[in-house]
Amino acid sequence: MANIAAQRIKREFKEVIRSEEVAKCAINVELVNDSFTELKGEIAGPPDTPYEGGNFVLEIKVPETYPFNPPKLYLNKIHVRFITKIWHPNISSVTGAICLDILKDQWAAAMTLRTVLLSLQALLAAAEPDDPQDAVVAKQFRECRDIFWQTARHWTHVYAGGKFLLNRWYK
Amino acid sequence: MEENERVAQISRERSSLRNENNSGRPDDEEVRQCWVCFATEEDDPNTDWVQPCSCRGTTKWVHQTCIQRWVDEKQKGNSTGKVSCPQCNTEYLILFPKMGSLVMILDAANNLIYRVCPFVAAAVVVGSVYWSAVTFGAVTVMQVMGFKEGMDIMEQADPFVLLIALPSVPVLLILGKMVRWEDGVLQFLRRNTKKIPILRQILPSFYSPEEENETAVARGINIDQPPLSDPVSATRVLCSALVLPTAATIMGNLFFESVNSNLGRTLLGGIAFIAIKGALKIYHKQQLFTRLTQRHILDYTEDNAALIRIARGSTGQ
């Protein structure tokens, strides 16, 4: 791995660990291997959303050309070790690919693992159904919001461990 | 000249700024951190820093080398493209050193050639096709009229007329080939063999008792005829259109030797060729159609499987 990428990820890693969001358990980053090319991210489902109480695990791949190119994030890639499926218009319910502009052409080198994870958390709170990644979910989101909410909550319960709040929902 | 002085002044200012930076900070701000590599001033003190946009705080300072790499990444090979800060949208001020006039001329020439080449290439292709068409037209005229008469006609004609008329020969042949008259005839025969008894006797293969189909229709099953026309193959249309004059000449020489005029002989030969070919094509299509409508799917039994194996073996499939 290029020296600049490794150096930067090390610094960013320290930044996340020290950040107040980690202290509040809103986000977290863990190393997967020693080379800093692959990380495991975690974000808590934001409150007042169907994802509340869920813990969403992400696979983060850092390219050789980081920070000139964005990191690659997958939310629910079933065939790798992290399994957190999510029901969200901007995240594929099958592949886990995330549709977020800052992970594509709007990436800026000043962004960090911490800001990316926080942006993703914001995406969970405010979906963009007009720029969908999963057409089925986006259609449901637009046309029958109740069913969408229930499905998203169910998936949070089943795949992201949102147990307590699910019980509250069914009561 | 004025510009050169200005550039020199900017460079002087830049270097003085750098010296200032290296020898302690003039303004008492926090430790600088590069927003690309995240290294701070303390990590490597001997690097060139720049403040390329109006961002403040953690994205104020960046290494000269790091921002250059970022600009490269954004320009994607177009070294004169504009790049802006992704946060504050300030366009980066990229100053190129002044080069000699030779470099400027080479630059301009390079750009010009880059832009003109696609058009030249297109013109070469179009021109080649055009001259091939002219040549084909001339060869066809000589073939159809006879060598001597053809040469005479072309020598007498206005060169401009020739330049338009000759290439239109292959074009017209191809357009003519696109008319699929055989399909029309086939449709007509299929519709009318039932109604006209004479046709039924001459062409028994077009008449099929339709009782089975009628029962199927009665059960509400739509038995559509399979699509009549097979898809048009461009290469096939091209080849058969271009081969037509040769075929017409050969046919004319074979069957219409008594006709004295070359043109008349070739015309008769061409009509005969098209008619025979069309008849064969219609017959073949009708047979294919019959084969398709009269097929059966058998019960799966050992006997039937053996039967199919034998049938396939005999047709070599």
Write a structural description.
The complex is a heterodimer of chains A (171) and B (317). Mean pLDDT of chain A is 80; it is low at 164-171. The relative contact order of chain A is 0.17. Chain A contains 6 helices and 4 strands, in the order ααββββαααα. Chain A has helices spanning 3-18, 20-23, 113-125, 135-143, 145-160, 163-170; strands at residues 27-31, 38-44, 55-61, 72-74. In chain A, strand 1 and strand 2 (38-44) form a beta hairpin. The longest helix of chain A has 16 residues, at 3-18. Chain A is of the alpha+beta class and 171 residues long. In chain A, strands 1-2-3-4 form a 4-stranded antiparallel beta sheet. In chain A, helix 4 (135-143) crosses helix 5 (145-160). Chain B is an all-alpha fold and 317 residues long. Chain B has 3 domains: 2-75, Herpes Virus-1; 101-174, no CATH class; 178-315, no CATH class. Residues 18-28 of chain B have low confidence and may be disordered. In chain B, helix 3 (101-145) packs across helix 4, helix 3 packs across helix 5 (159-178) and helix 6 (181-192) crosses helix 10 (262-293). A two-stranded antiparallel sheet of chain B has the order 1-2. Chain B contains 11 helices and 2 strands; from the N terminus they run αββαααααααααα. Chain A: InterPro entries: UBC (IPR000608), UBQ-conjugating_AS (IPR023313), UBQ-conjugating_enzyme/RWD (IPR016135). Chain A: One of its GO terms (molecular function) is transferase activity. Chain A: The active site is at residue 99. Chain A: Belongs to the ubiquitin-conjugating enzyme family. Chain A: This is UBC core domain-containing protein.
